[in-house]
C-alpha cells in the first residue's frame, strides 16, 4: 500500500510539473503594456508553428489609436499595412536552456523600427517579459496573459 501511495504522489508531481510547463508557453493572447508600465496598447496573439513563435495584433486598446491606422513608417513588406492584424513578432525559437524564445524580431508599429527580440514567461506564465534590442541596448515591457 505504501508503494501505491508513493507512486500516486510521484504521478501527481509529474502532472503538476507538466501543467506548469504547458502554461509557461508564450503561445496565447497577451495584453501589451507600454514602457510606462501602465498604458494598455493592444492585444497580441502569439502562436507556435513548429517551434517558431509569431505574434499578430488582434485588437487596439489605446484610445488614441486610429482603428484604420497603417504602419506607414515600416520599411519592409508591412509598409502601409493595417496595424490591426499586423505581425509584430517573428521567428522566435526556444533557447537551449528553455528559458527564452529568441533569434527573431519585434516591430514597433508606431515608429516602424524592428528590433532583435527575446521573450519569456514569468510569474507562472501569467506575464510575458518582452525585450527588444538594438546592439547592447534594450527596452523591456511586461505583457499580461489574457488567455
Structural notes for this entry:
β5 and β6 form a beta hairpin. The model is unreliable at 4-23 (pLDDT under 50). The chain is globular and about 40 Å long. The chain has an 8-stranded antiparallel beta barrel with strand order 1-2-3-4-5-6-7-8. It has 147 residues and is mainly β. The chain is built from 1 helix and 8 strands. Helices cover 15% and strands 45% of the residues.
How widely separated are the two ends? 41 Å
Q: Looking at the chains present, what oligomeric state does this protein adopt? A: single chain
Helix content: 10-25%
- Main sheet? 8 strands, antiparallel, barrel
Q: Runs with pLDDT <50, length 5+?
A: 4-23
Overall 3D form = globular
How do the strands line up in the largest sheet? 1-2-3-4-5-6-7-8
Mean pLDDT: 87
Topology as a string of helices (H) and strands (E) = HEEEEEEEE
Number-wise, the strands total 8
Rg estimate, integer Å: 18 Å
Give the class from helix and strand content and strand pairing: mainly beta
Q: What is the count of helical runs?
A: 1
Percent of residues in beta strands?
A: 35-45%
Amino acid at each position: 500500500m505504501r508503494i501505491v501511495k508513493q507512486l500516486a504522489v510521484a504521478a501527481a508531481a509529474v502532472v503538476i510539473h507538466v501543467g506548469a510547463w504547458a502554461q509557461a508557453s508564450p503561445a496565447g493572447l497577451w495584453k501589451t503594456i507600454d514602457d510606462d508600465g501602465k498604458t494598455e496598447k493592444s492585444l497580441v496573439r502569439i502562436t507556435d508553428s513548429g517551434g517558431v513563435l509569431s505574434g499578430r495584433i488582434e485588437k487596439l486598446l489605446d484610445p488614441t489609436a486610429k482603428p484604420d491606422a497603417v504602419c506607414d513608417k515600416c520599411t519592409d513588406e508591412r509598409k502601409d499595412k493595417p496595424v490591426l492584424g499586423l505581425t509584430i513578432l517573428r521567428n522566435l525559437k526556444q533557447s537551449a536552456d528553455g528559458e527564452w524564445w529568441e533569434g527573431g524580431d519585434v516591430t514597433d508599429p508606431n515608429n516602424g523600427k524592428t528590433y532583435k527580440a527575446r521573450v519569456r514567461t514569468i510569474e507562472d506564465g501569467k506575464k510575458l517579459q518582452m525585450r527588444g534590442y538594438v546592439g547592447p541596448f534594450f527596452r523591456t515591457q511586461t505583457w499580461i496573459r489574457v488567455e
